[in-house]
Amino acid sequence: MSGLGEFQRGEFQLIDWIRRRSSHHRQVPVGIGDDAALLAPTPGEEVIVTTDMLMDGRHFIVGQTLPELIGRKALAVNLSDIAAMGGRPLAAFISWALPRHGGRELAQALWTGISELAETFDVAIAGGDTNSWDGPLVISVTLVGETVGGRRILRSGARPGDWIFVTGPLGGSLSGRHLAFMPRVREALDLVQRVLVTSMLDLSDGIASDVRHILDQSGVGATLEAHSIPIHQDVDHSLPSSEKLQRALTDGEDFELLFTVSPIEGERLLAHPPKGWMPIRIGTIDEELGCRLRTKTGVETLARGGWEHSID
To answer: What are the extents of the domains in the chain?
Structure first.
């Protein structure tokens, strides 16, 4: 990357600096430089669109967090959403409100984190918006993707008897992993081409909260097996077992995928697991509404937990 002296002060110089570093993609015949981008998704597939906003003081702290990681996470959380729909990411639109003082240097570092992850998943940076103000950094990413094989994976398709899986261990993400996690895009694409996934979402707020989105939208319940919940090594090893489990259920920001499949598909998936990762079965979808946790001492109601923004 060239130094900051390559562009002068001002929004348009920064946009031009970004435009010249944006690679060309077949899915985006016209990208940065016009009033809007043109996209060319694969014929026969549906378009998927997601957006997330991250704010200094809430999702990160400028000065305490590497700006490259801030930019990376801003794109990564959107990639995780596309993965949760079983989709293929195509193009991203980056909008940021930069601090008036020091914004140019911050923008370059943010761009480094964004562009490196975009290249990893062959995502075009197709446009966005740039502002500056006297407030803190705010960065919003909108990501466009497409379905694969015409399959739309929603939260509303879980059925009684389905098996519940996750793609990896949970808990302890705030020790740093939440800034550098790898979105499960490849795992999702592999998964939807192997088995019929009935529902799926990404775990951003913790299982104790997120699983209820599937249960509510599918009109079903679930029983989770405490002994099967995979606990990440980032969870404090000195904690008692019950507290470790609680962290795995409620810490959030894991960005693993939680998905459901029929027992037949589940057996097939476990018998012939995908290359490079192992799906972990953690429970079963029930007819009885609500969410339960089976422990060594019996079955108890799983308390709602995890993160939720407070709005008065």
So the answer is: 4-146, 163-301
Per DSSP, 226 falls in state G
Calpha distance 172→185 (Å, rounded): 22
Superfamily of domain 4-146 in CATH is: PurM-like, N-terminal domain (3.30.1330.10)
**Contact assessment for residue 289 and residue 220, using Cβ atoms and an 8 Å cutoff:** yes
In three-state secondary structure terms, 298 is strand
What's the predicted TM-score (pTM) here?
0.89
Return the residue matching tokens 């949760």: 84
Q: What pLDDT was estimated at residue 18?
A: 65
Longest dimension (CA), the chain: 66
What pLDDT score was predicted for residue 311?
A: 47
pLDDT, one tens digit per residue, over 60-75 is 999 999 999 999 999 9
For the domain 163-301, what is the CATH superfamily, name and number?
PurM-like C-terminal domain (3.90.650.10)
Interatomic CA distance for residues 193 and 272, integer angstroms? 13
Do 229 and 305 touch, CB atoms closer than 8 A?
Answer: no
Cα dihedral sign for 10, 11, 12, 15? positive
Model pLDDT for residues 18-32, shown as the tens digit of each residue: 667 766 667 666 556
